[in-house]
């Protein structure tokens, strides 16, 4: 999950393709968020691209790519060895 904190009316967030991200084009977004703050669910492994489509903010650098990795498999720590029993004298 990613939270974009922005002021409604001054900024927006558009999820776009890599090509649209590079070109700062918001005309064909996958998802758009116009009310801030926006909470975006990122459930699949991959790279997500977001831009601000208002004004020239994207060209000024108001854009971000987010890489989602798979969580590593949790490996249980090894169990402790049983105590060594010593023969009584």
TrEMBL record:
Q: Which SUPFAM superfamilies match?
A: Cupredoxins
Phytocyanin domain location is 1-70
State the GO CC annotations.
Answer: plasma membrane
Q: Which InterPro entries match?
A: Cupredoxin, Phytocyanin-like, Phytocyanin_dom
Single GO molecular-function term?
A: electron transfer activity
Source species, domain of life: Eukaryota
- The protein, known as: Phytocyanin domain-containing protein
The organism of origin for this protein:
Acorus gramineus
Q: Taxonomically, what lineage is the organism?
A: Eukaryota, Viridiplantae, Streptophyta, Embryophyta, Tracheophyta
